[in-house]
Write a structure and sequence with these properties.
The protein has 18 helices and 9 strands. The chain is of the alpha/beta class. It folds into 3 domains: 72 residues; 188 residues, Rossmann fold (3-Layer(aba) Sandwich); 197 residues, no CATH class. The protein has a 7-stranded mixed beta sheet with strand order 3-2-4-1-5-6-7, with helices on both faces. β2, α4 and β3 form a beta-alpha-beta unit. α11 packs antiparallel against α18. The longest helix is centred in the C-terminal third of the chain and has 73 residues. The radius of gyration is 46 Å and the shape is rod-shaped. Guanosine-5'-triphosphate (GTP) binds next to α3.
């Protein structure tokens, strides 16, 4: 295998990749054509890549069959004055065995093996085609089908019809990418005086050049007189010997298909999902999924639990009566608390219509950005990728939030310390009050008074009572302030972890599918670039 064969194989593979990536997204026509080229290339190489298939094509009566006979030195092709004469394609080959598989693939049923001899061409399958401008539709269909399959084409024209629009607009112009594997033969040269023949050839050359067929050689022949037949045989022999016709033809096929795909894919920069749009979606989804409610719940729960733990015991019983905000939202579960069979539903408020509309808009903005400038089929897929599971999205968010570790349950170590101090201070209050009440009670019952104990010049009972109350209240105030700081810190942490949970869901459900589609588009673009060669 030569380097150019390797390169062709790489281009065919790239075209196959582009087809695969574009399936269901790109223009169905361009994708189907490219797929057909990939299939054809594989088959053509498989069915005897060593042969070169060359066909005589042209208008009826131009002399295709006559030239075919002249070149092959046979009378196999029917030549006649009535038009059209050839109605079925015919193929010949030289040597000991016909390349039946190749001829089957070409669907040529009329086939002949020519004996080795002076007119022999090895590794050539030569075809005589029906006319392309026939009144018979079947003829044109045969020509169109085989024009797609053969490796090289010899267009036979005559002095009357060499400029016919049917040939130039219908075939030559659209086949410009195949200029290198075509040859135009002006037959019936014997009908023109030499000067006119030159004019005719000049005019033909000009026409072809204008049609992008500069690379297509022209020559004059007369099948009747045998003029130019030797040169035509030499041209055929060269084409066969250099073994490039098939590869060139396939390369041109790949180029044409890739160009159509490239046009369909466009050349604008591949869009991307911006951070801003992503953050916007995370924010509105977070709101719709009640993240602020949970954050506030965490703050309140911390506050409530902290003040119960550190507050003045005489009043904390009131706080105990208030419902716990997180428990009300059924969020007071550490990660270990989820039993696997239990559907982990929270009792968060459902998204309001306004919140849902914002989510919708956020998603739309994100996808508009990601689909911006993409061809329609691709843009639709990007939209599908991000929007096909909105309900699922909210459900997953709910579960993610319920699953987030809010770390409120555990409280903090100094709460216990404050709690112990509060109980000690309360004990002091009780002891002080008891002491102060004891003497009047003892006096009334006639029992001896307790001895007066002075601490810092103040009666101990008074000091215990007042100190206990003041200490308790001050400790409660201090605890309150510290709890508030903790509540805010925990609310912030909860917001972070909830937003991370939302971001993860957004990444999995929205960004990754959209990104996958954009990556696929990029892959298609890159593959087409390689296929273009
Ligand atoms: N004067 C002259 N007549 C030719 C030449 N080549 C072919 N003819 C005649 O032109 C007529 C048509 O020739 P064919 O070879 O049957 O033409 P064709 O292109 O195969 O035609 P279809 O099979 O109908 O498409 C026949 O009468 C040939 O004898 C030539 O070089 N000079
Ligand atoms: Mg014919």
């Amino acid at each position: 295998m030569s380097a150019s064969d390797d390169q062709l194989a790489a281009r065919v593979r790239a075209l196959a990749d582009a087809v695969e990536a574009s399936a269901g997204r790109g223009s169905a026509e361009a994708v189907d054509k490219a797929r057909a080229v990939v299939g054809r290339a594989g088959e053509r190489v498989a069915f005897s890549g060593s042969y070169t298939v060359i066909a005589f094509a042209g208008a009826t009566g131009s002399g295709k069959s006559s030239l075919f006979n002249a070149v092959t030195g046979s009378e196999l092709a029917a030549v006649a004055v009535r038009r059209p004469t050839t109605s079925k394609a015919m193929g010949v080959s030289w040597g000991t065995e016909l390349p039946h598989q190749l001829l089957d693939w070409l669907d040529i049923t009329r086939r002949h093996l020519l004996p080795s001899g002076p007119n022999e061409f090895s590794d050539l399958v030569l075809l005589d085609l029906p006319d392309h401008d026939s009144t018979e539709v079947g003829h044109r269909l045969t020509v169109d089908r085989l024009v797609e399959l053969v490796d090289a084409l010899i267009w036979v024209v005559d002095p009357q019809k060499y400029a016919d629009a049917a040939l130039h607009d219908g075939y030559l112009k659209p086949l410009a990418p195949y200029a290198e594997v075509m040859l135009v033969v002006l037959n019936q040269a014997d009908r023109l005086p030499p000067a006119e023949l030159d004019n005719c050839l000049t005019d033909l050359r000009r026409l072809l050049d204008a049609e992008g067929l500069r690379a297509t050689p022209i020559m004059a022949t007369s099948a009747l007189r045998g003029t130019g037949v030797v040169e035509l045989r030499e041209a055929l022999a060269r084409t066969v010997a250099n073994k490039q016709a098939m590869a060139r033809r396939l390369a041109a096929d790949v180029g044409v298909a890739a160009a159509a795909l490239a046009e369909d894919l466009g050349s604008q920069p591949v869009p991307a999902v911006s951070r801003l749009a992503q953050q916007q979606v995370i924010r509105v989804l977070g709101e719709a999924a009640a993240v602020p409610v949970v954050v506030q719940g965490v703050r309140q729960a911390w506050r409530r639990r902290g003040s119960v733990a550190t507050g003045w015991p005489f009043v904390t019983w009131v706080a105990r009566l208030r419902p716990d905000p997180l428990r009300r939202l059924r969020l007071d579960l550490g990660p270990g608390d989820h039993s696997p069979t239990e559907v982990n539903r929270t009792s968060l408020p459902k998204a309001t219509a306004v919140q849902r509309a914002r989510v919708d808009q956020g998603l739309r903005e994100l996808t508009d950005e990601a689909a911006g400038g993409l061809p329609r089929g691709w843009a639709e897929r990007v939209r599908d990728a991000s929007r096909n599971n909105e309900l699922l999205l909210l459900d997953r968010l709910d579960a993610a939030i319920a699953g987030a570790d809010l770390t409120v349950r555990r409280g903090t170590w100094w709460w216990a310390l404050f709690g112990v101090l509060q109980w000690l201070l309360m004990a002091a209050v009780v002891a002080g009050a008891g002491w102060l009440l004891a003497n009047p009670v003892l006096a009334a019952t006639g029992l001896p008074q307790l001895p007066e104990v002075l601490w810092y010049g103040i009666p101990a009972g008074t000091l215990l009572l007042v100190g206990g109350v003041l200490g308790g209240v001050l400790l409660a105030v201090l605890g309150r302030a510290l709890v508030e700081i903790g509540a805010n810190a925990h609310a912030r942490a909860a917001r972070r972890s909830l937003e991370a949970a939302v971001a993860e869901v957004v990444a999995e459900e929205v960004i990754e599918p959209v990104q996958a589609e954009l990556d696929r588009y990029r892959r298609a673009r890159e593959a087409v670039r390689v296929a273009l060669g």
